[in-house]
Amino acid sequence: MSASADVLALASAEFNVSDIAEGTTLTVKWRGKPVMIRHRTDDEVAKEAAVDLNSLRDPQKDEDRVQGDPKWLIVLGICTHLGCVPISGAGDYGGWFCPCHGSHYDVSGRIRKGPAPANLELPPYTLQDGKLVVG
Ligand code: FES
Fold first, then answer.
1. What is the DSSP letter of 117?
2. Residue 36 DSSP class
3. Total-model pTM
4. 113/42 Cα distance (integer angstroms)
């Protein structure tokens, strides 16, 4: 059996990211989940690329968490502890802070402090010419 047209339409969603200023995050919805689109500054990109992987709970290179232009980081806004929606641009590492139980994520969405066991998940996406397609 194949999926109906309305189901296929829900499977992916398109967003214009060209108006998102550097250093800010836009939250959109995809399949009922918050997707957070962070337009990172050059300083943020350099800082995340330089993080020592041995200091990470869930070691992952920053370059493995982005596709193409490293200035764009796209994560699911769902804390990997118990599923709360973390606050963008907050916490000790400037990425996300989940006030539920105090998880801090960096500007690569990697868990740095608090009870969450894993980095923020990355949704499937493509990004080209200011057009983001999630799903
Ligand atoms: Fe985020 Fe508990 S749900 S810290």
1. -
2. E
3. 0.92
4. 24
Handedness of CA 76, 38, 49, 64 (dihedral sign): positive
Q: What is the pLDDT of residues 21-58, one digit of tens each?
A: 999 999 999 999 999 999 999 999 999 999 999 999 99
Tokens of 6: 């309305």
Query: Both tokens of residue 7?
Result: 């189901």
Q: Rounded to whole angstroms, how far apart are CA atoms 51 and 69?
A: 18
User: Which residue in this structure is represented by tokens 């994560």?
Assistant: 75
- Which residue among 57, 75, 78, 79 has the greatest number of ligand 1 atoms within 8 angstroms of its CB, and so is best to mutate? 79
CA distance 129 to 14: 12
In the block, which residue shows the tokens 């995809």? Answer: 30
Count of Cβ atoms closer than 10 Å to residue 115 Cβ: 14
